[in-house]
Every structure is written in structure tokens, then in C-alpha cells.
């Protein structure tokens, strides 16, 4: 059975990243008898210059995109409906603040070394969109670590140092140079870029097509 590598460029502060990943899961679930999948997560910061206190999401988005707060509220409610249809908890998505996620990505890099990247990512999505908690806050990150059976003291050590800072910045730069300017972004087999939270059926078609193309390539002599 062929293996498909999917590099997921994502930010825990991005609602479409949570939705896109859930749709990716649904697509993978439809292909379990055809393909194996190898998933790798990579960091992206939507708000790299955000001050520590953050900004209320409605005000932030209205200012960022030059639209009315009423329009932002309507858009947020549409996002919440799309997420909830997939079983995601977005009950506080319109109450959250825009936050910088750099420290969250540093801790996620550590979680990946423990083999718990996926679980940590999903828990941060729940904390941010389901409870409007700051995904880079010490208590949030340490609490998730403890709930996953990881050493929450390691989280404190990371946040009190510069550990993983260079790694996160290098990963962000690498994918920016590769042309990733928005998230979610899915790089398939290190060659093909799928941007945005695509529907599962579209992803299934893309994976099947790419697998056929790979199998049609001549073997090296």
C-alpha cells in the first residue's frame, strides 16, 4: 500500500486550520484501504506582532480587513456553524481574543518529540475556540501537557527559556520560502500544495489522483 506524506502548515489561532484538519481526517478515513498517511505538523503565526494581552477578535478582524464589526460577527457565526457540523467545539469562537502563538508553537515542537503533537494541537484548538483561552498562556499549555500525561514542568522550563525558538523560526521561514502565505496549507509528498480547508471529497480525489500519478511513473533503472 502506498504511503502519502502530508505536511500540515497550521496555526492554533486559525479557525480554518481546525476545520481543515478535521476535513483531512474525514478524507483519510475514506482511504484507509487504499493508502497509508504520514502526517507532519509545522508552525505558522497569524499574529506575529500581537502584544501579550491580545485583542478582542471582532475588533481585531474588523480593523485588519476594513469591514464592520457586524460583518465580522456574521462571518464568525458561519465559521462556528461549519466547525460544529464537523463535531468541533467552537462555542466560544466569537468571544476569543487574537493572540500571538509563538510560545504555543515552541511547546508543540516539544510535544512532537514526545509523539503527542496531534493530541496537543487538538487540545489547543478546543481551548482556544471552545473556551476562548489564550493558546500561548502558561497555564493552558501546562494544563494540556498534564492532561496528556506529559511533564508540565517541562512546559515551564520551555517558557522560561528560548528553547525551540530557533526551530520554530526556521520552520516558519522554510515554508514561507516554499510559498506558503496562508493557512491551512497541505503539502503532499513534498511536491503539491493544497491551500485552504478543502472539503473531504476534494481531498480524496486529489490523493487518489496523486497516487495514480506516482504509480504511473517509470521505475529508476
Task: Tell me the strand percentage band.
Answer: 5-15%
What is the CATH homology-level superfamily? Glutaredoxin
Which stretches are poorly predicted, pLDDT < 50 over at least 5 residues? none
Mean pLDDT: 95
- Give the class from helix and strand content and strand pairing: alpha+beta
CATH architectural group:
3-Layer(aba) Sandwich
Distance between the termini: 22 Å
Order of helices and strands: EHEEHHEHHHHHEEH
Q: Write out the strand line-up for the largest beta sheet, numbering strands in chain order.
A: 2-1-5-6
Number of helix segments? Answer: 9
Radius of gyration: 18 Å
How many domains, as an integer? 1
Q: What percent of residues adopt helix (DSSP H or I)?
A: 40-55%
Main pleated-sheet profile: 4 strands, mixed
Task: Provide a descriptive summary of the structure in words.
- This protein is an alpha+beta fold and 221 residues long.
- The protein is 52% helix and 14% strand.
- It has helices at residues 15-29, 57-65, 69-85, 102-113, 117-131, 138-147, 152-159, 165-177, 200-216; strands at 2-10, 35-43, 55-56, 97-98, 185-188, 192-195.
- The two termini are 22 Å apart.
- It has 9 helices and 6 strands; from the N terminus they run βαββααβαααααββα.
- The mean pLDDT is 95.
- Helix 1 crosses helix 9 (200-216) and helix 5 (117-131) packs across helix 6 (138-147).
- It is globular and about 55 Å long.
- It has one domain: Glutaredoxin, CATH 3.40.30.10.
- Strands 2-1-5-6 form a 4-stranded mixed beta sheet. The protein has a two-stranded antiparallel ribbon with strand order 3-4.
Amino acid at each position: 500500500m502506498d504511503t502519502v506524506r502530508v505536511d500540515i502548515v497550521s496555526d492554533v489561532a486559525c479557525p480554518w486550520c481546525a476545520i481543515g484538519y478535521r476535513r483531512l481526517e474525514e478524507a483519510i478515513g475514506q482511504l484507509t484501504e487504499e493508502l497509508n498517511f504520514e502526517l507532519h505538523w509545522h508552525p505558522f503565526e497569524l499574529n506575529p506582532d500581537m502584544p501579550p494581552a491580545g485583542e478582542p477578535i471582532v475588533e481585531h478582524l474588523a480593523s485588519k480587513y476594513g469591514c464592520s464589526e457586524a460583518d465580522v460577527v456574521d462571518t464568525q457565526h458561519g465559521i462556528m456553524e461549519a466547525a460544529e457540523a464537523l463535531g468541533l467545539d467552537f462555542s466560544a469562537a466569537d468571544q476569543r481574543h487574537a493572540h500571538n502563538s509563538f510560545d504555543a508553537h515552541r511547546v508543540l515542537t516539544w510535544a512532537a518529540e514526545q509523539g503527542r503533537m496531534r493530541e496537543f494541537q487538538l487540545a489547543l484548538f478546543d481551548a482556544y475556540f471552545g473556551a476562548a483561552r489564550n493558546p500561548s498562556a502558561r497555564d493552558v499549555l501546562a494544563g494540556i501537557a498534564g492532561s496528556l500525561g506529559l511533564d508540565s514542568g517541562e512546559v515551564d522550563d520551555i517558557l522560561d527559556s528560548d528553547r525551540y525558538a530557533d526551530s520554530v523560526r526556521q520552520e516558519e521561514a522554510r515554508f514561507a520560502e516554499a510559498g506558503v502565505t496562508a493557512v491551512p496549507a497541505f503539502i503532499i509528498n513534498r511536491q503539491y500544495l493544497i491551500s485552504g480547508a478543502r472539503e473531504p471529497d476534494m481531498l480524496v480525489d486529489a490523493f487518489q489522483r496523486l497516487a495514480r500519478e506516482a504509480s504511473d511513473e517509470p521505475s529508476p533503472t
